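Pipeline run #58 for the internal structure catalog. This entry was flagged by the ingest filter as a single-chain record with no existing model, so it goes straight to prediction. Upstream metadata was stripped on purpose; only the residue string is passed forward. Reviewer on rotation: M.T. Logging verbosity set to normal.
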Amino acid sequence: MKEREFMNKVANDNNDFFQAFLDTLEKLRISFCIVGGLAVNAYAEPVVSLDLDIVIVTKQLGHLVSILKERYSATEYSNSINIKSPSSALRIQIQTDPRYQPFIKRAVYKTVLGYEIPVATIEDVLQGKVWAAMDKTRRASKRQKDLSDILRLIETKEELVSLLPNSLKKQLFPD
């Protein structure tokens, strides 16, 4: 089974919502990159996730969301817009936190579960995970997953540990 087939099987998706979303971005010439757990998979041993965290250039976001709302359900939150298709368990989470915008220009193309897409650099993915892990408004289980993703990245590239705030270093590597 190929990676894309696996992803679509896990997402219970016969229509490839992931590819349809990517095709929309390409058709509209929208700059983007992925962040979050699937981006971690571009650098470390893959872990299954049904969340596609993505950053879209802010000036194109309104137009994109209006188009997506015609095809899918969209729910707006304080720092994200979540897009769902009734034919897939995949959840697309468009990050609206402005801190992520610079990640787009530094992104590199990587293959993630069979999709060739722009992915935030490993340092930027780590930064996003640090922000998420330190966000006390997030559920504890989500923050725990973020810590796990941080460790996965550090296991891939040990020098990343120098980019962690001391509070996270103490939490992850107690003496």
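catalog note: The beta strands are 32-35, 51-56, 73-76, 80-84, 91-95, 108-112, 115-119.
catalog note: The chain has one domain: 3-172.
status: ready for reviewer M.T.
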